[in-house]
Amino acid sequence: MLRAYAALVLLGIIWGSNFIYMKWATALISPAQTVFMRIFFAFIPLLIVALYTGSISLKQLRYLKHFVVMSVLAAILYYYGIVAGTALLPSSIAGLLSGIIPIFTLLATLIFLREDRLSLGVIMGIALSFSGIILSARPWESSEFISLMGIFWVMVGSLSFGISFVYARYYLLPLEIPSIALATWQLGIAVLILILFIDFKGITTIYSDRHVLLGTIIGLGVMGTGGAFLLYYYIIQKLGAVKASVATYIAPVIAVIIGAVMGENVTAIEWFALTLIIGGVIVIQTTKLG
């Protein structure tokens, strides 16, 4: 159990570090191209490991429909939403907004799994977290300071990923397919879908900055996506969908700290908004549902 919680913390740190890499990448290439590079460079090493360990086989294609759904929910929509939002927002703001993922996970659990009922504590937690989102949007200031479209995209990505936790728990875990195989199938399918639908014009611009290139390949690809997928399934198996999503409120803290270190304008408002979002999640996690 201690190992599972250590993996939870590590996953939060990896996710939190991703936002600054996304910000740098989208300064040179489009969000869709950034998502493609992220997924592609995660897929290659995962495929190698899956083949080497014998974890993946063609027989698993009988579950193709589930792999496709997870490719869309936990890879394409999630990554595009977060990347597109980060391109329009300071990385610290995008990071703190991503802390809402556990709320969406809980709501999806309540709606689709019907394992718990809505309690007063849960309602209070949800209200706190959404208050943090509203505060971070600074509605009293002009939209030039904080992009509402950026916030919208982060919410889309967060909602998609929250739903994916529940889908994985309900449909994929009972199949007892090795996590490396699940991640490989999903990322591979995501790569194929992206090849069909995105515009690659100008993608080579990223090669003009070696630091950004390496950050995208290693930070977003190998570590931020490949490693995160493995940790993601391991944690769900050990701790369950809602507890696994707790890593998403470690990530915002890391993202805000990195943003501040990199010179972004992180004020008391951002820290208070982050406190509200995380506080809401903590209230929910400590409230017994039903």
From TrEMBL:
The keyword Membrane applies. Its main location: membrane. Signal peptide: none annotated. SUPFAM superfamilies: Multidrug resistance efflux transporter EmrE (SSF103481). It is a multi-pass membrane protein. The chain crosses the membrane at residues 35-55, 67-87, 93-113, 120-140, 146-168, 180-200, 212-234, 246-263, 269-287. It is found in: Membrane. Keywords: Membrane, Transmembrane, Transmembrane helix. It holds the Pfam family EamA. It comes from the Bacteria. The keyword Membrane applies. GO terms for cellular component: membrane. Residues 4-136, 149-284 form the EamA domain. Belongs to the EamA transporter family. This is EamA domain-containing protein. It comes from Acinetobacter bereziniae LMG 1003 = CIP 70.12.
